[in-house]
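The following block was generated as part of the benchmark described in Methods. Ligand: thymidine-5'-diphosphate.
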Amino acid sequence: MSGRFVTFEGIDGAGKSTHVDWYVERLKARGIDAIRSREPGGTPLAERLRELLLTQPMSMDTELMLMFAARRDHLERLIRPALAAGKWVVCDRFTDSTWAYQGGGRRGPAERIAWLEAWVHGDLQPDRTYLFDLPAGMAAQRRAAARDADRFEREDEAFFERVREAYRGRAGQAPERFRLIDGRLPIEDIRKILEEDIASIGN
Ligand code: ADP
Ligand code: TYD
């Protein structure tokens, strides 16, 4: 028995969180046993690392390793057991975020990210990844209207454009896994796209 692993990705303010809870409810309405989680976070230890990551100044290397430390705990205690029990895990961010933020945004070395990825989760990859794509300026406007900025969200527009480009590069490398979603669309239109896609992951 094996579940499905679904991730939501995109720059801050792209609209991921707006859809994750709704998506899990749609899965449950179809009789699917689904849980929602997020990164960094998802377990008590990883949530504590998240608090540090979002608030404390730190070097790029420390940030990269803490992201993967949080991920390892999340995988061991939540993601792998849930998948083994046949559940669907719907996660707000996963390793594509590391490639986009620590790799693209901070220009971190790809070979270290690849090495950590292989160590921390081997060949486990999401079955489906929704990439919410929109211009960095538009995402910044939405964030400004919605909430106070955390450590990442205080980065400038050029940083978020690099993150966006890194995400688009990832999506181009794995077109069967990714679904690119135009984040400028109305929420109802995005829900239709997501709803229609659910059936294709179940098969
Ligand atoms: P993320 O989780 O990607 O950071 P959020 O889901 O928190 O983004 O959305 C950021 C803000 O943009 C929220 O105020 C949300 O209501 C709004 N928003 C999300 N999706 C849309 C959309 N498709 N159209 C207009 N506003 C949106
Ligand atoms: P997120 O949960 O999307 O924050 P919010 O609820 O404010 O939208 O993610 C927190 C931040 O962590 C986000 O700015 C992206 C960053 N992040 C990385 O830089 N690398 C990673 O590997 C992950 C998972 C997140």
